[in-house]
Amino acid sequence: MSTALDIHSRELAEQGYTLLEGITTDEEAAAAVGVFGELVPQYDGSLRYQVKAAPGFEQRRYSKSVNTILVHTEAPGWNPPPTYLALHCRVQATCGSGHTELADMRAFVASLSERDRAALYEQTVDWVGHNTGGVGTEGVRRPVVEVTDSGQEILRFSYNLLTTGQYDPPVDAAVDPEQLPLGSFGIHLAEQAEAFFRENRVSVLIPENHVLIWDNQRMVHARSAYTDKRRHLTRYWIAAQR
To answer: Required co-factor (predicted)?
Structure first.
């Protein structure tokens, strides 16, 4: 008979995400996600990051705003990025929005023209190592699809970085393509990724006391805008051996 861990591990492997139920405390959440790997410090050095609207970010596409967050992977400037990302819902928005949205980046890569697909493996990007908080690593220079010595593919992506040069830009940011990491091609790539995402995303309004966990080296994610500022999720980064 399959155990709950077997089922969740299989869902992670097959569809790239899984939902854990009945998680009420920080300690329960850390224990539940810890079976998939080691918890690692985030941008602020903490193992837990509170995803909740806060003053000062009203005009930015940032986790502590209520604005739409566009398609990306977490911490692309880390080497390697977290294997898994987990969100523990403490208080869900009651406004009918604030969904966490996911799509399989491997399927997106496979959908591209041969020329564009090759560029993802060959053209490197300076993935800076921090977000708006300014805390993090020095960053890495890697292609969107990095093939490791073991043959594993690690996918990095940020719509915002490719179109504005920032991870958490102002909502109305406009930048000369000459100043962008991949220039006009990066904008072309980001627009294709966004279109693919809108057609193929899975949209999850995480129930309270549930944890959504997904493969951050495979899946891209986004968030819909919301208005209920009571919304509160706790984020975890998990490093796992492949």
So the answer is: Fe(2+)
